[in-house]
Structure formats: structure tokens, C-alpha cells
Design brief:
globular, Pol/histidinol_Pase-like, Immunoglobulin-like, alpha+beta, CehA/McbA family metallohydrolase, hydrolase activity, 5-stranded antiparallel beta sheet, hydrolase
């Protein structure tokens, strides 16, 4: 039975509470009276319809620590932890086209963005006491790549997903104008993270020209690198044979997907795994552009290595959200982790469907970008195409780079063949500009096969690179005989590094390659036989 509290202390507390209640209510009402309602509507300038947008609201350089109810929230974080929710790493947030906030009087700074193809906007808002403020802003494109048949993809996003999160995550992609988001379940020797509820057709979610698909970054090891898979009908994991990447790759190929090495094959010794699997024809792609290594997102050393050996690799890119940004999630807002800050474009020449996208990526019709737009044609062949010529035939390569003088100020455009610059222009030359660079190179008589690609630099952290056009002569290859011996020696060096890793047990818990000595030695021996054959063939 409950006995009422009747002590003197209780009576005193109750009396004080009743006395203070009117003051507390008055104070709360006064605070509410001192705020004004801000209503912001965000429209696409081309359609005049509400559009998902990335928003950052600050006052005197400090983020306003108050979120609107309309902020689109999805849990995210490193190692699948709940490090973030509605705020992005730079304290911005996503809305679907409209939001409201009650703010104290003052001057506020509003930053609006919508990915690489839209112009960023900065506005000063003056909130006056008791006066509602209503603003409408229109987000304007400087280029529309989807209208030209090129659809953007962030090929490396880590967010856990069930069907209930699909519309929310899709809004995030729409706010960054990323057409295809590849959500990768991440794994290591011990565990998996960022689960996806389904793969292939069952794991798709599409609304108009925006699509979510599932993939994987698994296997991931510190000795052989991180591998990714896109477009497969299911996930593949070999926990008991973890360091034998090729078994996963073979199964992914059977399931209709493609595989590649992440992080430009630079970090986590990815160049070793790329050597072991790439020389044996198991690898389709290389993640060529990303803000995980350093401030500059484009690293081509390992890409040119394999292209010069006559091995085709499709260029892909991805943000590795929430892990990587221009400053790995720390520092100034523009350097924070952000979906779509590294992306690749794929030419479909058709409507955006999962099948069309997957087929185009598999064909290599791609270029990677953190801002600039590239258009490469070699005798009308697209990136990823094989252009077979008769010996002595001519070819013409034409490249256009597009940017925006303020947001993506172009600097240099280059045409690359066998790793060498064979054509170059800058924005400072006559007829060129920070918004458009163009370059044409004509070869009157082509005597040997070669790969040809375009690359471009613009403002800080802004670069682009195409997958090559593979030019062959009378059905031959496209390798570079001048560098083949050096690159084969380098490949052999990487194999010796693997042998050193597996030569004895390692006490570090994250290092497990030594447990797979037999399987890795077999694969090293097979790769060495291929290197010996290539030394004879690629003279």
C-alpha cells in the first residue's frame, strides 16, 4: 500500500515548485516569443519543383545546433557504429526540398549544395524578432550529364540498409545528385559490417533516375589490400579461405558481377593482391579516384602498371563514406567525408536500369571525377572500347573537358598513351578557358597497339580520368614494350613481398596471411609462370 509523503521537506519543495511554475512558464513563453520561424523552400531551377538538397546553417562561423524536423536521418558511422545520424560529418543535413526552424534574431549564413553538377549557393539570412522569414532558392545546374546519357555512381558507400531505409538513403543520393549508389557490405577476417538485406535484383531500390544497389568490400586484408564487387546477384564470403581472393572473384563473376581493388591499390598493400590476381586475369576494375590516400584524389601508378602490361582495367571511384574525405572527416567542412565527393560516370546510351548500368560498367564506358567532366573519343570509340586498326592506319583522338569558372575551374587537360603525355593544353592558352578545354591529336600511321586515356585537373582536389580506349593492330595487344620489362620486375618484387609476409607466423591479430601459405604459394607460382610468359611475349 502506498503511503502519501507528508514530511516538512516535501511540503517545502512543493510550495517552491508551485511558486516558481508561473515564472518558468513565462520564461519559456518569452523565449518562444523571441524566436521567429524560418521557412526555406528549395527548388530545382530547371523544373521549379522541390528538390533534395544539402544544407548547412551557421552563425558567426559556428554551426546552428538545432535541426529542423524535416532533416532526413540515417544512422552511419565507422565500423557500423552510431557515430552520426541526421547531421553529416561537416554538420550539414539533408532535406527533401523544404524545412522550417524557429531561430533567435540575428544574421545567419545558409550554404546550399547538390553535388558536383549543381552550383553551390551561399546566402545571408537576417532573422528579426517576431517576423516570420520565408525564402525560396533555386538550385541551378552547370552541366546535366544524365541528359547526355552519362550517369554518375558512387561505387563505395558504407551504410547498413533494410527496405525501410531505402527512401531515406535515396534522398541522400538525390541531394548529392548521384544516380547510382553502391552500398557495400564490408568484411574482414573476423566479421562483417553494414549489412544489406538483399543483392542483385532483390536488393534494388529505384526512383526515376536514382538507384540503390548492394555490393561488397570483402575480402579486406592489410597484406593484400581491399577488394570490392559490384553488380552480382548475391554476396560471396569464404571465411575459412579468406586470403584466397580469386575464389571469391570467380564466384562473383558467375553471379554476373565485376570485381576490383579499392583505394587505388595503394593502401593496405593492395598492389600485391592486384599483382597476384590481376596478372591471372581475375580483376575487372581499379578504384582510381578517392579521398582516402591524401589530398589529391587521383593516383595512377598501379593503374598504368597494369595497362602497360596489356591488362584492361575499368576505372571506378567512390567516396568510401563515412570513412574518407578530403581530410578524413576532420577539419574544414569542404574537406569532410561526403557521399559523391568521388564518383564515376558511365555511358548507358539508354535509360537507367540496373541491367543497363551493370552492362555499361562491365564494358568499361567510364570516367572518374571529383568535379571535371571528360569526353574522350578515339575514332569515335568510347572509353573501354577496343579499336582495332590495320597497321599503318591513322587515328584521331579528341578530348573535351568541361568545368565551371568559379566552382570547377579547369587547369590542365592531357591525352595519355602508354603513360606518356602526347597532348596537353591549359586554361591559360588561347582558345581555352577555365570552363572548357579541348584537345585533338592525330596520329598519321599507327604501327603498334597502345592504350589512350584522358586526364584533367581543376581546382584543389578536383581531377578526372577516363578508362582507356584500347587501340590494337590487326587483332594484337596494346601493351607497352618499352616499360613491360620494368613493370614485370616490379610485379616480381610484389610477389616477394607476399612471400616475406607468409614466411613465418605473425603475432598481430589482424595479420593472417601466414595461415594460408600453401594456397598463396600455389598462386604465386602460377603468377610467376605468367610473368615468364609475358617476358617472352611483350618484347
Amino acid at each position: 500500500m502506498h503511503t502519501p509523503v507528508t514530511s516538512p521537506i516535501y511540503s517545502l519543495v512543493r510550495t517552491l515548485f508551485l511558486a516558481l511554475m508561473p515564472i518558468m512558464v513565462h520564461s519559456q513563453s518569452t523565449r518562444q516569443a523571441r524566436t521567429s520561424q524560418l521557412t526555406v523552400t528549395l527548388l530545382d531551377a530547371s523544373t521549379d519543383k522541390p528538390t533534395p538538397t544539402r544544407v548547412r546553417l551557421t552563425q558567426n562561423g559556428r554551426v546552428v545546433a538545432k535541426l529542423p524536423a524535416e532533416a532526413v536521418a540515417v544512422m552511419y558511422g565507422l565500423w557500423d557504429h552510431e557515430d552520426g545520424y541526421a547531421y553529416q560529418p561537416d554538420s550539414s543535413f539533408y532535406v527533401a526540398g523544404r524545412f522550417q526552424l524557429n531561430l533567435p534574431p540575428g544574421r545567419y549564413q545558409l550554404t546550399l549544395s547538390k553535388g558536383n553538377e549543381y552550383l553551390r549557393q551561399e546566402h545571408e539570412l537576417v532573422v528579426k524578432q517576431g517576423v516570420p522569414l520565408r525564402k525560396t532558392f533555386r538550385l541551378q545546374r552547370w552541366v546535366n550529364m544524365a541528359a547526355k546519357g552519362w550517369y554518375s555512381t558512387d561505387g563505395h558507400i558504407h551504410l547498413r540498409r533494410s527496405p525501410r531505409e531505402n527512401p531515406l538513403i535515396l534522398t541522400w543520393l538525390q541531394a548529392e545528385d548521384v544516380n547510382v549508389g553502391a552500398l557495400l557490405r564490408m568484411g574482414d577476417f573476423w566479421e562483417t559490417y553494414y549489412p544489406q538485406y538483399a543483392y542483385g535484383q532483390k536488393g534494388l531500390h529505384q526512383q526515376g533516375n536514382f538507384l540503390l544497389t548492394s555490393g561488397q568490400e570483402d575480402p579486406r586484408t592489410p597484406e593484400l589490400g581491399h577488394a570490392f564487387a559490384l553488380g552480382a546477384a548475391d554476396r560471396v564470403r569464404r571465411r575459412d579461405r579468406y586470403y584466397l581472393f580469386d575464389e571469391v572473384f570467380d564466384k562473383i563473376h558467375q553471379l554476373g558481377g565485376l570485381v576490383g581493388y579499392a583505394h587505388q591499390a595503394e593502401t593496405f598493400h593492395g598492389y600485391r593482391g592486384l599483382t597476384l590476381d590481376g596478372l591471372r586475369g581475375k580483376v575487372d576494375a581499379l578504384e582510381l579516384l578517392q579521398f582516402c590516400v591524401d589530398e589529391h584524389p587521383l593516383h595512377t601508378e598501379h593503374y598504368y602498371h597494369f595497362l602497360d602490361l596489356g591488362i584492361p582495367l575499368t576505372a571506378t571511384a567512390g567516396s568510401d563514406f563515412p570513412w574518407c574525405g578530403r581530410d578524413h572527416g576532420h577539419g574544414p567542412p569542404e574537406r569532410s567525408a561526403r557521399i559523391g565527393n568521388a564518383r564515376f560516370y558511365t555511358y548507358l546510351n539508354d535509360s537507367l536500369t540496373f541491367a543497363n548500368w551493370r552492362n555499361a560498367v562491365q564494358a568499361g564506358h567510364t570516367f572518374v571525377s571529383s568535379g571535371p567532366i571528360l569526353d574522350l573519343r578515339v575514332n569515335n570509340a568510347l572509353p573501354g572500347d577496343r579499336l582495332n586498326l590495320k597497321r599503318g592506319s591513322g587515328l584521331t583522338a579528341t578530348v573535351h573537358a568541361y568545368g565551371h569558372a568559379n566552382q570547377v575551374p579547369l587547369d590542365t587537360l592531357e591525352l595519355i598513351s602508354h603513360g606518356r603525355v602526347i597532348g596537353r593544353v591549359t586554361a591559360r592558352e588561347a582558345g581555352q578557358s577555365a570552363a572548357h578545354l579541348t584537345l585533338t591529336v592525330t596520329l598519321s600511321a599507327v604501327e603498334r597497339g597502345q592504350w589512350m586515356a584522358a586526364r584533367c585537373t581543376a581546382g584543389p582536389g578536383q581531377a578526372a580520368h577516363t578508362t582507356p580506349v584500347y587501340v590494337t593492330i590487326d587483332g594484337g595487344g596494346f601493351h607497352n614494350p618499352e616499360t613491360a620489362s620494368r613493370y614485370l620486375d616490379l610485379s616480381e618484387q610484389y610477389l616477394r613481398e607476399i612471400e616475406q609476409e607468409i614466411s613465418k607466423p605473425n603475432p598481430a591479430i589482424e595479420v593472417q596471411a601466414w595461415r594460408y601459405q600453401d594456397g598463396l604459394k600455389t598462386r604465386i607460382a602460377e603468377t610467376r609462370r605468367i610473368i615468364a610468359d609475358l617476358r617472352k611475349k611483350l618484347r
